[in-house]
Each structure stands twice: as C-alpha cells, then as structure tokens.
Amino acid sequence: MNKTEMQIQTILEACSEKKGYAFSVIDISKITTFTDYFIICSVNNERQAEAVAEEVLKRMSEIGIHAMNKEGFNTKKWILLDYGDIIVHIFHKDERKIYKLEQLWADGNEVNIEKYGIENWL
Question: How close are the terminal C-alpha atoms of the chain, in Å?
Fold first, then answer.
C-alpha cells in the first residue's frame, strides 16, 4: 500500500468509525491540477458531521498528515478538509443531494473502496 492509499484508508476508517456512509472516492488526477482524489461521505445531522470531521483530523494527525485547510465547521452542512492530494467532503445527506459532486466530477474515475475493507452502506 502506497502513501496515498494509506491516507485514503485512514480517512475512510475514520469516517466509518463515526458512522459516515455512502462513500465515494473519485480519482480526478487526470482532469484537474488542484488535487488527486475526492473522498465524499454522508452523515445524518450536523453533530455527526462535526464528529466525522474531527475523527478524520485526529487520525490523519496521528500519521503525521495535517489539513492544509478546513471549511464548513460553522454550518456543519458541508465540511471540507483539504489534505492537498486528497480533499474530504463530509455532507449532510440533504446537502449532498443538492450539490451532486459525483455528477459534477463524473469524468473522474470511481475508486472501488472494497479493497479498503470499508462497508459502504447507503
């Protein structure tokens, strides 16, 4: 497992630990220069969004990776954690339906998360 895969694994595990769901990992490295991967998950409420984000920040920090930018903690409807090569989007389920990032970035390649051992319930 390379460094990027280890980071993706860490992020997915952190999200799953706090009951994030409906994960998408999209490789957009061939269609944009600002990042390589989007990791998207849904949560049911604002409190859960904050818990998921805090768990991701904690777990990534434990492996020596720190977010370059954090946004959305004020409303907790869409929290974005920017790790440079990976951007994590934690969406309240209703917001995710509005913004439809997977459709906007449909030219990217969907990564099969089964290899990370994460259950992806909807």
Answer: 27
Res. 122: pLDDT tops 60: no
In terms of phi and psi (left: phi > 0; alpha: psi -120 to 50; beta: otherwise), the region of 117 is left
- Give yes or no for a contact between 31 and 83, defined as CB atoms under 8 angstroms apart: no
Residue 67, pLDDT score: 98
Mean pLDDT of 35-53: 98
Q: How many CB atoms lie within 10 A of CB 71?
A: 12
Measured CA to CA, the distance from residue 77 to residue 46 in angstroms comes to 6
Element (H, E) at 81: strand 78-82
In DSSP terms, 70 is beta-bridged to: 81
pTM summary value: 0.94
